[in-house]
Structure formats: structure tokens, C-alpha cells
Task: structure prediction
Amino acid sequence: MNTKFDFKNIDQRQLAYIRPVEIAELPEEVRAQAEGRDHVYA
Result:
């Protein structure tokens, strides 16, 4: 997670944003698969 990366040569059209999502915000069928986690990344 702390690896430095040079973003100068990255194609901005292929950039994805990932954010933490609280398990409580997810539908029940997804929460059932969370196996004790507080959050996931989406």
C-alpha cells in the first residue's frame, strides 16, 4: 500500500477510483459473505 508509483505515464482514461465501503451499507446477501469484515473496497 505504500509503494511509490510514477503517475506521469499513466493513461487517464483507464484510471479507476477505489474507496472503502462500510459492510452495513451493503445488501444483506453481500453482508453475509463479508466474514467479519468492517469494510471492503469497491
Notes: The mean pLDDT is 87. Residues 14-41 form one domain. Strands lie at 20-22, 39-41.
